[in-house]
Structures are given as C-alpha cells and as structure tokens.
Design brief:
Elements: E1 2-6, H1 11-30, H2 39-59, E2 64-73, E3 76-82, H3 93-111, E4 116-122, E5 127-128, H4 141-151, E6 157-164, E7 185-189, E8 198-206, E9 209-211, E10 215-225, E11 231-238, E12 241-249, E13 254-264, E14 269-277, E15 290-298, E16 302-308, H5 313-323, E17 328-334, E18 347-351, H6 358-369, E19 374-378, H7 384-389, E20 394-397, E21 403-410, H8 421-427, E22 433-436, E23 439-442, E24 447-454, E25 457-469, E26 472-478, H9 483-493, H10 497-511, E27 519-522, E28 526-528, E29 534-540, E30 546-547, E31 553-557, E32 563-567, E33 569-571, E34 574-578, E35 585-595, E36 598-609, H11 613-616, H12 622-631, E37 635-637, H13 645-650, E38 658-667, H14 672-692
Parallel strand pairs: 3-4, 3-6, 6-7, 7-37, 9-15, 16-17, 16-18, 18-19, 19-26, 28-36
Antiparallel strand pairs: 1-2, 2-38, 4-5, 8-10, 10-13, 11-12, 11-14, 14-15, 20-23, 21-22, 21-24, 24-25, 25-26, 27-29, 29-30, 29-34, 31-32, 31-35, 33-34, 35-36
Helix pairs in contact: 1-2, 2-14, 8-10, 9-10
C-alpha cells in the first residue's frame, strides 16, 4: 500500500507552517531567560516543540493522503448441478447417489485451493448450495444460465461447470441464450442416452371448470418408444368406475398420438378423473403412465323468472336471449298467474311492475320482502309512485304522464362489469326507447351502464342502471320497446350478438348471489405441487366493513387425514396465508375465528396436482450439453472424469487471478496516526521538562 500527501495550497503555505513552529519554539525556550534549562536541554526540548507545532499548523491546511489499494480476485468457478429426478430414473441411479456425490465433493474441495468456487442447484428453481437430492420435478436449465449471466456480470468468472443429463422441460432452449462471449462451460454428461422401452402420458388438456349437466373435452397426448406392434389400453376412471376405455396400437418405435374424450359433468363439486395407460413389459418407468386430473363442476344453472303485467314483445325478446344460454333456466308468467316462491329463483325480471293492478303489486311486495335480485323493466304501464315506495335505489318523480324518445349513451365511468367496446358502439345506434319523463333520483352507489339522450341532448338520466341495497342487487331498464333493439341488431349484424351480450351481462351480474358471510376465504381450486398454496381472507363487521382485529386460524386436512393448523397473517384490512407447496392430493380446509362472541367459519377444498414433467422424457441429451461446451470453448466430460476437472482448468491460460488497483483520498485529520505522532511529541517534551525540573 503506497501513500502520497497532497496540500491544496501554494508551496509557501508549507514554509509558513515551518516558520510558525520555529517562532513558537524560539519564544518558548530560546528567548526565555528565566528558564533553569541548559542550552543543550533547551535545544532538545525545542526540537520536539518545533515538530509538534509545525505539524499542528500543517494539519490546519487539511492535507490529503492518496492511498493505492491493491486487491486480488481469484477466478470464480461456478458449479451448477441438475437436481431433477430424471437422473434417478436411469440405470446408474445408485452410482449417482453414492460414489458420484463423493467424487464431486472431492473435486470441489480441490478446486477451492486455487479458485473461488460458487455452487448452485437448478431444476424447478435456481438456488445456492450443493445439497443434491435429485428431487426437483422439472428442469429449467435456461433459468440457471440467465441468472448466472446477470448475477456475475463484470466478475472474474473462470469457468462454468454444468452437470446434468441435458433434459430440460421448462423455460427457454438453453443453447439459444449461450453465446461465444461467455466463460467456458464444462458440461458433465449424466444420465443414459439409450432409448429404452417406455410409454407415457405426455400431456393433458382439459377444462378445469365445467357446468353440471354439460359435457367437457379431455385431450390425452401419448408417447411411446420401442413398443412397435404392441396394443395397450388407455382408461379413464372416476370413483373406481371405468368411464371410457380404448385400445392404443403403437404403430412405430417412436410413437406419438392424441386421443380425444368427451366426459359428462354429472356431479357437482371437485371431481377426480384418473387417466391410466396400461404398462408394457420392461418399461423403464410406470409412474408416467398414470395421471389424475381435477375438474370443478359448478351447478351454475340459474333459475330466472320473468313476471309481466301483460303480454309484450319485450318479454319475448328477453326470454329468447336468456333461453339461448344453457346456464340459465327461464320461466315467464303473467303477474296474476305467478304463484311461485320467489326464493327459488336467482333473479326475477319484473316487466312494467308494479302497475295499477293491486294483485300484481302484492306479488311485487312479496318479491321485495324475499330480497331476491330483481331487474325492473319500466314502461308506460309502470306505476311510478309504487316503484318509488319500493326503495330499490331509484325513484322517478313526474307530475305529467309523458314519455321521451331516448337513445342510449354509454357511461365511460361504469365499473361493475366489463362491457365490449364494439357492443357499446352498436347499442348507441339502436332505436330510441320510450322512457318516463320526470326527475330521476338514484342511490349514491348506483351506476348507469347507459344514460339517455333525447335528440342531441344528453339528459344524464339513467337508462340502464344497477344498484345494491342492503346486500340485494337491483337493475333497471328505463324504457319500453327493447324488442326493437334485438330486431335492429339482427338487421345490422345478421345476429343478436350485441343484444344478447347486453342481457347476458345484466343477468349475470344480478343473478350472482351477494356473499353475506362475514368470514370469507378464497383460494384456487387446483394447484401444482411445485407452486405455493395461498389463501386470502376477509372478515366483516355487522356493517359489512372490512376488519382484521381477531386472529383467524386455518385447519388443513391432507389426503391421508392428517391435520395441520396455521395462523393467517394480518395485512391492512384483510388476511393472507402462504403454506408453501404441498404433495399431490385433495385437501379440505376450515378457517375459524371469534368476533363479538360469535364463532365464524368458512370451509372449502382444493386439489394439488402432481407435476410429471421429469417422468416423460428419460433419454439424456448429451448433444445439447456438447453444444453448450463447444459454443463457449469448453469441454464435455463424463461423471467418472469429474476428478480431472481441476487439472483441465489449470491447463487454460485464460483463467487467471486479476489484480485491482484503487486510489483513495482521505484527510490526514481523519487518520489516527497524525494524532498519535502529535501526542507522542508533546508527551516526550512534557516528560523531559519534568525530568529537567522545568515543571
């Protein structure tokens, strides 16, 4: 380490510091005639005082010291090891788990003598360390290479050692992200390149959600090697019963095909289907012949009633639209004939009700009392005074019996659900509706999908709007003649698609039951065993305001009946819980808490599906590994040669220790050495003066 001193002043300031020290010394010792000191003693003491005084004066000029620091950086050897389970499915699994791991550790210890060794594992994720257990169920080799390039940019990387079987089943093609400018990659070619007898369910495509009573497709992709001429069964079972079975004839030594199945969703809830390909003799692995899928069957067939004051083409148009959607079951009634219990319906559409008919108004009151979501179609037969008394979130005050011919104008601030831009533009061109004339008042939380435009004047009054009152949703179509919209849509577009979209969106929003549970837990229906299982929770007080004061506990039951308990984290006004990845199977959960002396619970189920990527392809790809090495001027070696790696690296002239020189400037005032010298000079002077009897 070298030091240089710099003073940011003219040279004569240095002479001035010497002069100050000299003058002070002369005045203190040589001009003091009363001193008992001899001339030699004065000179000796004066020397110490001169240097200490001059040094203090010099420090007042804030001199800088330049330091040259030299650091050595050893070459970094990065070892990335494939930790995926495919390596254990070959014939040399015992060697890799025992002798190979011992040889690898010996090699790492030898490399550490000359290099800075950094070890990583890659598979489903890249992470630090070398605790190899060959347990990862997918391989993303490109992620490892990309993370190394990013993390070690501008570092002295000597070489990258990549050990694996060359099989990747996730991420990018590794050779596409490797360039000639990268450090040399030494690949250790593990695994077995021999093509052996094996058949596998390569890929599945299916709907994770199906509706009760509907059919849904399942697509099964099959791969088979060395099984030409063999015929095996492909079977789909549910609850131990065979749903469908087919014979698969392998017509080539490298066979691949896709089988299409159409299954029926005949039970609601999470349904499990097991897909199994019959195992052939001498197959290397049977685990890739079996897959289980989970389909959430929803009983989403909503019951809808249309109750009309009198026959009207609007009713026919709305009913036809809803009938076209297989998820709805719709019935239409005249008001006098409606004797059904309102609560059996998810949505009731009231056409021009309440009216002047007293009996029909009793029906409306019954529907409102049952708190069933309702869509009001307001027209000339509607009794506005009775409508206002319902307190459904909209009131119309009119002193005269008059209507306006109003066209729809889309409200850009509408947020309750998405609405296609093309559809909104088409609806704005539809014929006008006969809307009630008067003063409109809506609840503060009401939102208009379309407002009315009379001629060229935008009135701002709602034409189609929605509101939620006391946990019940209400909708309003304020205008008579909506059947004209269906007709105009067909005339302009040769279909009813825009009109159907409008009715479908309104019906879907209104018929969706508002969740009145105070404790609500949400999670996905299905997870992969490689991803974390996450729960989100919400708790509401009596005013349905979100809170997170009490603790919420989750009890999780695994497929074998074992139970574990977790505690939610409280975040803002909600709850969050991440329990990490879980083994494959069906899980049930129960969340519970106590608030205001009331016990609250929420239950549910979810499925964890096994990731079978590592079982599908078991033929090692040493060609890919060789490509990575050749592209970076590295070398491919085999596991039995791993102990030769240190010698191979030493033979390279481009793997060297790098010297870094850095210059640093600091003030002498900040250096303890200057302070020590001054104290030492003054201390020696004081001791001598004491000794000479001057003090």
């Amino acid at each position: 380490m070298n030091y240089d001193i710099y003073i940011n002043h003219e040279w004569y300031f240095f002479l001035l510091c010497i002069l100050i020290g000299l003058v002070y010394t002369l005045l203190l010792y040589l001009k003091n005639k009363k001193s008992v000191l001899s001339n030699k003693q004065r000179i000796a003491l004066g020397i110490f005082r001169f240097f200490s005084s001059s040094l203090v004066a010099l420090l007042l000029l804030s001199p800088l010291v330049k330091q040259k620091l030299t650091e050595k950086e050893k070459p970094i050897i990065i070892i990335g090891h494939d930790n995926s389970s495919s390596i254990m499915l070959g014939k040399d699994s015992a060697y890799y788990r025992n002798d190979y791991l011992a040889q690898l550790q010996q090699t790492i210890d030898e490399l550490k003598k000359d290099y800075d060794v950094h070890s990583y594992l890659f598979g489903q994720a890249t992470r630090n360390g070398n605790a190899i257990d060959f347990a990862d169920n997918k391989t993303d080799m490109a992620e490892f290479i990309s993370s190394i390039k990013k993390q070690y940019e501008n570092r002295n990387i000597g070489a990258i050692v990549l050990a694996g079987d060359g099989i990747y089943n996730s991420g990018l093609q590794p050779s596409n992200i490797v360039s000639e400018t990268m450090p040399p990659i030494y690949t250790v070619a593990m695994g077995d390149t021999a093509v052996r007898v094996d058949a596998a369910i390569n890929h599945l495509k299916y709907n994770k959600i199906a509706y009760l009573g509907n059919k849904f497709p399942v697509e099964v992709s099959i791969k088979a090697r060395q099984l030409e001429g063999k015929t095996k069964k492909l079977t789909i079972t549910k609850d131990g019963k065979t749903i469908e079975s087919r014979n698969i004839e392998y017509t080539g030594s490298d066979y691949s095909a896709t089988q299409q199945f159409v299954l029926e969703a005949d039970q609601k809830g999470l349904q499990y289907y097991t897909i199994q390909l019959q195992t052939a003799d001498n197959e290397i692995s049977a685990t890739n012949n079996l897959r289980t899928i989970a389909v959430d069957v929803i009983d989403n067939k909503q019951k809808i009633a249309i109750v009309a004051n009198s026959p009207h083409p609007d009713v026919a148009a709305i009913k036809r639209c809803i009938d076209d959607n297989e998820n709805y079951e719709v019935h239409s009634f005249l008001a006098n004939a409606f004797n059904e219990a309102p609560t059996q319906y998810n949505l009731i559409i009231l056409h021009q009700l309440p009216s002047e008919n007293l009996q029909s108004n009793n029906i409306v009151a019954k529907i409102m009392e049952a708190k069933v979501p309702t869509l009001f179609v307001v027209g000339s037969q509607t009794n506005l005074a009775q409508l206002n008394n319902l307190k459904a979130g909209l009131q119309i005050f009119s002193k005269i019996d008059k209507t306006d011919e109003s066209q729809p104008l889309f409200n850009n601030e509408f947020t309750l659900f998405t609405f296609p831009e093309e559809t909104r533009n088409q609806i704005e061109l539809f014929p006008p509706l006969s809307t009630p004339f008067g003063e409109y008042k809506t609840a503060t939380n009401a939102q208009s999908l379309f407002t009315s435009k009379v001629g060229t004047v935008a009135s701002g009054n709602p034409m189609i709007c929605f509101v939620q009152m006391q946990q019940v949703r209400y909708g309003f179509i304020l205008g008579e003649g909506i059947w004209k919209w269906a007709l105009a849509d067909y005339q302009h577009n040769n279909s009813h698609s825009n009109f159907n979209t409008l009715i479908d969106k309104a019906v879907m929003y209104l018929s969706l039951r508002v969740n009145k549970d105070k404790l609500r837990i949400s999670t996905q229906n299905t997870y992969h065993d490689t991803e974390p299982v996450i729960f989100e929770g919400e708790l509401y007080n009596d005013n349905f305001e979100p809170i997170n004061i009490p603790e919420v506990k989750l009890t999780l039951a695994s497929p074998n009946g074992e139970q574990r308990e977790y505690l939610f984290n409280q975040t803002n006004n909600s709850y969050h819980l991440n329990i990490g990845s879980m083994p494959a199977g069906k899980y049930t959960y129960r969340a519970s808490t106590k608030y205001n002396n009331k016990n609250l619970e929420a239950t549910g189920t979810f499925v964890v599906e096994a990731t079978m990527l590592e079982d599908i392809n078991l033929v090692a790809d040493h060609t890919l590994l060789n490509t990575l090495s050749a592209k970076t001027n590295g070398q491919l070696i085999y596991p039995q040669q791993i102990n030769q790696l240190p010698q191979l690296l030493k033979q390279r002239n481009d793997i060297k220790t790098i010297m870094y020189t850095e210059e640093q400037y600091s003030e002498i005032l900040n250096m303890p050495l200057a302070f020590i010298i001054i104290v030492l000079l003054l201390g020696i002077e004081w001791v001598l003066r004491k000794y000479y009897g001057e003090l």
